[in-house]
Predict the structure.
Amino acid sequence: MPSLKTMARRERRQSRFQGGHSLCRGCGVPIAVRAVLNSIETPVVVVNATGCLEVATTRYPATAWNVPWLHVAFENAAAAASGVETAYRALRRRGALPVDGPMTFVVFAGDGGTYDIGLQALSGALERGHRLLYVCYDNEAYMNTGIQRSSATPFGASTSTSPAGLESFGKLERRKDITAIVVAHHIPYVAQASISHWQDLSDKVARATSMDGPAFINVLTTCQLGWGHEPRLAIRIARLAVETCFWPLYEVVHGRYRLTEGPLRKLPIEAWLRPQARFSHLFAPENRRWLAEIQPQVDREWEDLLARCALDASASDAAREPPP
Amino acid sequence: MIEIRWHGRGGQGAKTVSQLWAAALLEAGKWVQAFPEYGPERSGAPVQAYNRSDDSAIRRRAAVTSPDVVVVLDPSLLAEVDVTAGLDPGGLLLVNTEESVSAVRERVGFEGRIVCVPGDRLAIGAGATKANVVVAGALAKALGDPPVATLKEGARIALGGKLSPAALATTVAAIEAGYGAVSAGRCVPVSRTPRADGPTRGLKRYRDLAVGAVVAAGTAGRTRTGGWRTGQRPDVELRRCINCLLCWVYCPDSAVELSDEVVFVGFDYDLCKGCALCVEACPTGAIAMVAESPALRPGLAPQGK
Ligand code: SF4
Ligand code: SF4
């Protein structure tokens, strides 16, 4: 599993993603991108969906990417990556590659490009079994176009299309469980990670890229603008998401759920909500009843996840047991 | 036709002030345009907005490349962006700065009329948080048009729906502060030199444009983002550094510099945006944010060249 020194050496040798991009001060997205790319040993090809990352790293005529990089559209990053991966296999079979060797195909797409707009292309790529690593940087709304709600936006969050105000409350619907949807495609590797836990994320990338088939990692990624927090608090807030069990760190290997890092103590959900302006209306006296709904939602999901992990752990124990 | 180009940083209200300006001139019976440069206008990034105004319909829709007036909302941009690009020598450069006209003239090498206004100070005095409307007030005075009453009406039209009555009153006070801070001037001569004023004046032809689609890899590092900092930069006391590399892994801007032996050696201030994540990440407290003068901010190579 990569250590920070290994990752740093890799970046020193070839910086796959550079500074000088136009992502916001204190943005969580480049933290995820560097952690992912520096955890991969082989050469990589990156396919990027439309979003903050794509727009702000490719300000013509400059690019922050120092690897083969492709952008086609918002909805089809997974389809474009499928094509690139297929072309690579075909050329390799014919011996037509200038340099033969293993290569890793990585898709970076935001929650808008994954949960909503790119879902069909993603589903197709997973079902066809392309060998690629799909990384969703999930900052829980359409940040690039001005903080509109997506199906990743959590219950209660105020966005420009689910505003909190006199006549409205914030998002009334719950977040879509994209990980479960991806798991339902029976691919070898699915995981949820956070920028706050670099080692966990890096280990997951290493496991994901060792699989013979599609892998998907959903990385919680802060957005100081859309979430409304001081830039310097990005990592602390991402960590609170894990510590409150709003964003558990787990993986699903060949259908088996496993918690990769449990919180030492489970903090109340308010610890994660409070530092973010998008949730501030929840603390107004008249909204207390909405706030009170959130903790049971989180508890329920967390307990379901624990039960699922326990079940799968005992199933694999049973499988290992010698027949009587 | 008068063409204005506003230079600011994301969050300083360049777009808003261009809309306010257009609303005022519309009120005065002009044909107007107001629009920002579309791009990743991230908080702190250099941004531009444009105005056109005329007595008859305006056919041009492109970005303003040969402005009559350039307004700079943040003095640090003088060293980062070629603000006077295409500015007519008979035109006006208005800068929000504490510096003198001669100091600005020396920095930008512009021969024409320069007006400086200490917008940040005046904004604070008026109780406002942004200098943009102060600068608009100063611009109206420096151009002799529109009258301050019309500009205030523009503020009511453009911002009335968004601001509370108290915030609107502050905005109006800020406009007045700017208006009172500079000496009166006259309108830039619209037709100072006869020129082919078709819709394509100053624009490149398609054959002259660089070929897009495929760009050279790894070129963003030449774009200096150090100017995004707002008066604070990280500083390290290397004696306390245990080389855990946590600042390196959490820096969003690849501004933590390592030696070949992957030992932390310092910061790349050309890239660092001053987010202070490294300060938060450091377990030994080796990193702290320290004040820096905007004029001394590194990261000063022109953008996009
Ligand atoms: S202040 Fe932010 S951008 Fe600058 S070195 Fe620290 S983490 Fe990087
Ligand atoms: S986080 Fe602190 S101790 Fe660790 S490498 Fe950076 S400066 Fe040194």
Notes: Residues B 234, 251, 253, 255-256, 267, 272-278 surround iron/sulfur cluster (ligand 1) (CB under 6 Å). Chain B is about 25% helix and 20% strand. Confidence is low (pLDDT under 50) at residues 190-199, 295-305 of chain B.
